[in-house]
Amino acid sequence: MNFIKNIKNMFSGSGGELEETSPVAGTEDSPIESLVTNPEHPPNKTEAPVIRRVIRAPVASNDLFPPDDPEKVLIRAQPSTTGDQCLFMVNRPLLPGYSWWFPTFESAAGSPLTERLFSLDDVESVLIHEATVTVTRKDKTIFDWKPLGAEIGAAIREALEEGGDLIAETIVNEMPSEEAVRHGIQKAIDEEVNPGVAGHGGRITLEKVKGNTITIQMGGGCQGCSAADVTLKQGIHGSFRKFVPQVGAIFDETDHTAGLNPYF
Fold first, then answer.
1. Does residue 253 sit in helix, strand or coil?
2. I need a surface site. Which of 39, 76, 160, 173 has the fewest CB within 10 A?
3. Banded model confidence at residue 59, pLDDT cuts 50, 70, 90
């Protein structure tokens, strides 16, 4: 099948390193004050192509934010090393215990928070995970997140300050059980994913399920492979969502020789 054929063609090289967090605190006047241009990718500078990498989202906790004003909505932002994504950590629960991927504007219907985000011109997709928001932008040639980041910060703050549900009630009410998620993902791994990577000595293992968020580990030929993220996005990611459409965030805890933890 095409999925297996695509995965078999994606293995070579080694992984890269994850950029350190750039702290960004929101204020009433400027929701995102110090979001910086990705230093690895300054604008208008020609560079060799890099392997696309994405962010492992930490759970936002109290120690990420100043404790002086617990009533204020604060936001920290961390652009990805390739500049196409940015992780926003919020000192408020957004979708407690769960995650949800919004791939299109249409998928955001009925969810006030993501409706606001998709109203911004350069937003391609949104992933909500507990107290974090990961935004992928449409224009992959722009690496400075400050202008768009300020708009995203304002949209998140406005949705929180208005109160009420942030995510469509139907999404929360129809969330599958952890056992259903585990069963479906394991079925995808056994029937489609592992047969696809076996030819290169690779193996995918389901490590953890929390709500509808899953953690996997890549072994054998998958570990340390420079195409691992491409494989995840184009193959494994699609297979998981085919078997379990309600799966949210997908974490990879594999040590790809550099401690990289892809997140999408």
1. coil
2. 173
3. very low
